[in-house]
Amino acid sequence: INQQNEQQNEQQQNEQQLPKKIYSNTYYDFVPFNGFRVIILDSYDIGYIGWPETHKNYKIAIETLQNYSTKNFYDWKELELLKRRFVAFNGGIGLEQLNWFKCKLEQSKLNNEKVFICCHVPLIPANEDEVAIAWNSEQILELIRDSEANVIGLFSGHTHLGGLDILHQDLTMTTSQGKLHEMQFDFENSIRLIDNKFIQKTTTINRNSKSTLLQLVPHAVVECAPETNSFAIAHVYTNKLIIQGFDKCPSFEWSF
Hints:
21% helix
C-alpha cells in the first residue's frame, strides 16, 4: 500500500509539471515562463503516413507526391536534387496550421518573446541532407522571416545522422571539412557550421542578427552503438541557450 501511495504521489507531481491545457491538436504552443514561447509544429499534418485513405489530408499528400513521381513514392533517387524531399516518409504543414503558426509568431512579436520551434521533419537541410526536409519548408521559413518574431532555434529529428546548422541570409555553406560551396536548396540556404563528431567540448556560437536561425537535429538513438547514447539537456537563460549534449549529441552555447 505504501509503495502504491508513493507511486501515485510521484505521478501527481509529474502531472503538475506538465502544461495544464490538454491539447486536442497535434500542433500547439505553450509559455514555460515569461519572455519565452515554445511552438510545436506537426510536420505530418499533410502526409502519406498516418492518415486513412479517405481523409482529405491523405488525398492532398497523394496529389503532392504525384506531382513529382508516379512510380515509387519512397524512392528519392529518381527525383531531381531540389525535389528529393517529396517522398512518402516526409510530410508538410497544411493551410490551417500555417495560419495558426503565423498568428502565434505575430503574438510572440507583440509580447516580445523569444521563440523555440520543434518540428520532427527538419526545415533546414540537416547535415547536408537534401531528402529529409518538410515538403513546404520554404513557406514555414518565410513566415518566420516575414513575421520578424525573435525565433531563437529550431529542434528537429527524422534524419538519423543529425546535424547542427545555421541559416543565414547568404548562399554559402561551410561543411565540417571547411569547404565552401553553394547550397543546393531553393531558399536562403544554410551554413553547415559544425559536425557532431568534431565537437569535443562546448563551442560558443554568437548570433549576429534576428534573421539568423539555429537548427539542432540530435543523432538518432537507434543509430548509436551499444553502451552509447544521444540526448541533451537544454539550459535556457535570458541571453543564451546552453545545450549540454551527451555522447553523440553535440554541446554548444548559443548566445543571443
